[in-house]
Amino acid sequence: MKRTQVGIIGAGPAGLFLAHLLHREGIESVVLEAHTRDYIEHRVRAGVLEYATSELMKQTAIGARLQREGLIHRGVELRFAGRSHRIDFEELTGRSITVYAQQEVIKDLVAARLAYGREILFEAEALSLSGVASTEPRVCFRHAGAEHELVCDFIAGCDGFHGVARAAIPTGSLAIYERVYPFAWLGILAESKPASEELIYALHDRGFALLSMRSPRISRLYLQCAPDEDLAQWPDARIWEELHTRLNLGAELVDGPVLQKGVTPMRSFVAEPLRFGNLFLAGDAAHIVPPTGAKGLNLAVADVRVLASGLAEHYRHGRDELLERYSAICLRHAWKVQRFSWWMTSMLHRFPGDSGFDYKRQLAELDYLSTSRAASQSLAENYVGLDVTMNP
Ligand code: FAS
Ligand code: PHB
What we know:
This protein is an alpha/beta fold and about 400 residues long. It contains eleven helices and 21 strands. The two termini are about 40 Å apart.
């Protein structure tokens, strides 16, 4: 049996950032991660850090590589009906975003935790939780071929959408809100010079496409596809051909070897509340957003900033007001992010069965964005990241 102050299930952005912030407050935690270190440090996922996320990395001494290798972006381009419109983040909000892959954030967090001598138990799968409403909630986990028990003051369920933490909450105590979209994203990582210095979101009558990047030599590109798309039907040549059609970048878009490809389903999902006794849900364990707004990772970080502050108040001052408001604060923010992610997704994807009205409406929305400062400013302030409202 092990004993700790905060038991953290999951070494994704939520779990590792929480462990990092708690360590800086002198609070002990144990991180349980089902996969290997190599697996989590190479899993290709998100790519955009909101302003607040990159600032937090710099302020908490894990931003050195981000400052060297991260790509600062001061705007994003929308392409539709043969037109382009740039949303100028800097001019409209005074803020920017940083393109820096999620797996690089994971590497920075793992390195920091190991450097200050705290452990992450890899290949340690949480099997069940017990006593979550008690003062000694416990996690039963399998590690090195044996079952163990971790006794905690608090448990943070940072184990993603398919984890065990949310399942430990009695269904009668949880409200679930969900929307599944009738499409998915086919994403590739390619050895190809990015065709643009900034991200390009494109609505084409054949569907959505997104041009992003990881470095001056590595492009990250996405195509809207069917939710049950068979990747075997998408050889590299077909992917590039469809990207050329939808992005319409001419010779600027250079085909290159595809290093990784995958299909990501699209859903909006929120579980309420985010706290049950001394179990707190954070990140994808609590909510899922469609990746169109580049919010998943950033929302996870927003949750654990609040949770770390609440736990710090508990241990330092014996005060629990912030922990008691954790769910309300994070859900209020999460729903604003859900709205923006849903709005970006609904504006930029072709919906099956659309007789043409929705497409004309979407084009009108994009035309309005391109001609209204107020509309562009609204997109910009959501994209660079809304501040979390801490007061009720
Ligand atoms: P994560 O899922 O990242 O981490 C949960 C961790 O818990 C995992 O490491 C898992 O192994 C571990 N775990 C699960 N069950 C466990 C158990 N029982 N015991 C121990 N450990 C357990 N977001 C964007 O913003 N932009 C994108 O382009 C984007 N693309 C994505 C592509 C894919 C394929 C997926 C799945 C997600 C994508 N996301 C994207 C969203 C993604 O970035 C998440 O929002 C982000 O990883 C959330 O972080 P966590 O909440 O830490 O969850
Ligand atoms: C990415 O770079 O992976 C990325 C960028 C913007 C998005 C989603 C993913 O909206």
